[in-house]
Amino acid sequence: MQQYILRRLLLNLVVIWIVMTFIFVTLRVLPGDFAAQQVSDQFFAGRGGDPVEALRLARERLGMNDPVGVQYVKYFGDLLRGDFGESFRTGEPALKSVRAALPYTFQLGVMSVIIATVLALPIGILSALRQDTWLDGGLRLFAVFFLAAPTFWTATLVSGWAVKFDLLDINVVGHPGIWEEPWESFQLFLIPALAGGLATGAVLMRFLRSQLLDVLRQDYVRTAKAKGLRTQIVITRHVLRNSLIPIVTIFGLLLAGLVGGSVILEQMFNIPGMGRLLLQALLIRDVPVAQAMALLLVVGVVLTNLLVDLSYFIIDPRVTVGGAE
Predict the structure, then answer these.
(1) Count of domains observed in the chain
(2) What is the pTM of this model?
(3) Residue 174 pLDDT grade (very low, low, confident, very high; cuts 50, 70, 90)
(4) Is 149 exposed, middle or buried (0-12, 13-18, 19+ CB in 10 A)?
(5) Do residues 56 and 159 both lie within one domain?
(6) Are residues 227 and 284 in the same domain?
């Protein structure tokens, strides 16, 4: 087991290096840069001067005049020392901005996952147990609807209902965290979390129903029922547990997708999370912040995949290291 974890960690390091190399190159081949935007703003503000010389000095100050190969070596050398660079916009360490945004994205993600799980488990189980009935058809229609609906549309729809029926106070001032003002923060995050949770829960429900139907047809399930075991025991001890491995796999992939979805939700609801920060950094070409954000997201995704793989050994003791590979 230790050798398996070590091999996976080494493989993940290679994956992180490849992805960060791709991001490094992409950020430098995109048209425009922060120095050009800064000089352009100064020029149109009427400050005068030679814009060509000002652009050269700005790029030199930001370290953008070095050849790409030199920048690449410096970047990864700084990473090995724990230096993520300084934000072009604020001049502060890039990691400081990421640390400030992380709690908001984490709270939004956790609330979305809770909503998705609470919706998917009972709906998926009930739909499988009542296969091809009117209830199964209605629940599948519910899942397909929110699976096809764009997240921003769902968020807009839920927001309209909340305003119409005066369900929540959506005019919360500022951006309170749940560690500061729990109730105000809950109201601020509930609608975007519900929008993200509905989409994620719809995917989980569909996979859970399909997997449960496969397991329900197995011989050992029919044997358990023939022995007189109650349906609740059969579902919890035999069916649900043997359906968890593919569900956990899909769940791990959806966790990574929640981060991408939070870009839209955080922008819509003015939540100062990582998705909104990443979008702003890309728009103004704040390369150090964008690279720090990307690195954190990549590390989060690969660690989530590793934890999902390790959970197989807990869910099903029959899984071996060779089987996990």
Answers:
(1) 2
(2) 0.78
(3) low
(4) middle
(5) no
(6) yes
